[in-house]
Amino acid sequence: MSKIARRLAALGLAATMVGSLAACGGNSSDSQTADGGNNITIKFTWWGNQSRHDYTQKILDKYTELHPNVKFEAIPAGWDGYFDKLSTQAASGSMPDIVQMDYLYLTTYANNNSIADLQPYVDDGTIDVSQIADNVVDAGKVDKKLAGIVGGTGTVAIGYNPEVFKEAGIEEPNQDGSAWTWDEFVETAKTIKKKTGKYGICSGVADDTNIFNYWVRSHGEQLFSDDNKSLGYDDDQILVDYLDMWKDLMDCDAEPDPDEYTQIQSLGQEAGPVVTGDAAMLNENNNYASKMSSANPNLKVTIPPVSDINKKAIWNKPSYMLCISEKSKVKKEAAEFINWFINSEESNDIMMAERGVPSPQNIRDHLLDSGKLNEKQQEMFEYADQVVEYTGDTPDPDPMGISEVSKSLQDCAYSALEAAEKFRKEANEILERNN
Questions:
Q1: I need a surface site. Which of 41, 81, 331, 341 has the fewest CB within 10 A?
Q2: Which one, of 152, 195, 194, lies nearest residue 364 by Cα?
Q3: Helix, strand, coil: what percent of the chain each, to 5?
Q4: Name one Pfam family in it (predicted).
């Protein structure tokens, strides 16, 4: 039995126990509370691993220490299923007061009026965005509505385990400071599989619209049209080549197939194959090595493959945003907390850039000058500077219907020729219907 298989088997009992415990738990009220006095409770939900959950709770405790009348109902979750649950809550009007939002879904929640316009709280000084670059602030806008406050930024990256490269007897990628090509990336993954028997790349990204967006941009095109009513590229060979590349890697077992990857996901990030040394690389963000440092302090990140057609395919993406539910009864207090969470040294000294490079310039300077950043956190800041020459404009937030578009890509992700035509037809219908 493989190491991964043993871990999966071990998780079976644990999963059963967790499910049983969850079934025994009581249900909390769906309504946000602001009693007749000064005491309030703010519901706050976010995704992440256990390390993020732990330090976020410390941040909440610190805020309550500073503001004794404010209590929190913390609702941490993993990434998988987070937005399925949020969608259900939004539909029922029971969404938590503060929601950690991903750029992928911002347009959907803004346009269905699930999240409040935060511009009034900027205008009255409750939320200070003076230290955040205008283009980063604008990334939180949908049709002139300030739907979310960008707390951190990140860029796509390849996360990797240098020990697996050493085991394979090959150099770590991009050691000379230059970016590599897609062909070099594929050959590296295959060589690692051949020499170690381990996955060269373990991402399951053939159906990931974020990575496909990067691929499309690297071919000089954009994923969506300017009006968001159709795909932004005309040549279906772009998708065919993308799917063929990943199928080639799966065929030689340098990348897990969809069923294998579904099982691997159940291990959790800290026990993932790259962390444990059972795989060499994965597609991630520039904060990968930092956020996984407690599980493996030796992980690194590097520039993703670059195309000669467009070397500026990377973009600065909001790593997270904070939004307020339109149904919240404590919007003002939630806005005050968001301001403190993003702008205060106290909060960021606990967070230590784990959610991405902080968007306020003064907080970035504070952390760099503080001497508190560890090696991996410093590398994350340095990476943001290294990729400047490969960085282009940030695309608009993904359009309405993105979840359906992602599902369409997933459904056809492993049979290339017919899939490209099927994806174009379905995606255009979805985008036309939703925008």
A1: 81
A2: 152
A3: 50, 15, 35
A4: SBP_bac_1
Residue 375 in domain: yes
> What is the length of the chain?
435
Whether the Cβ atoms of residue 380 and residue 289 lie closer than 8 Å to each other:
yes
Cβ neighbours of residue 37 under 8 Å, at least 6 residues apart? none
Bigger pLDDT: 388 vs 326: 326
Q: Is 17 contained in some domain? A: no
Note the maximum CA span of the chain: 68
Going 369 to 155 to 184 to 197, the CA torsion angle's sign is positive
Tokens of 161: 């385990």
Whether residue 167 is found in the same domain as residue 307: yes
Please write the tens of the pLDDT for every residue from 237-279. Answer: 999 999 899 989 999 999 998 888 888 888 888 899 999 999 9
Q: Tally the C-alpha atoms within 13 A of residue 86's C-alpha that lie toward its C-beta.
A: 32
- Residue 10 inside a domain? The answer is no
Q: Note whether 145 and 161 are same-domain residues.
A: no
Residues 284 and 408 in one domain: yes
Residues 295 and 377 in one domain: no
Q: Pairing mode, if any, of strands 279-285 and 156-160?
A: antiparallel
Euclidean distance between CA atoms 266 and 141, whole angstroms = 34
* Rounded CA separation 314/214 (Å): 7
Task: Please compute the mean of the pLDDT values over residues 171-195 and round it to a whole number.
Answer: 92
- The pTM assigned to this predicted structure is 0.72
Q: How far apart are CA 277 and CA 310, in angstroms?
A: 33
For residues 168 and 275, membership in a common domain is answered with: yes
Say yes or no to pLDDT of 7 above 80: no
Task: Tell me which residue has tokens 């306020």.
Answer: 360
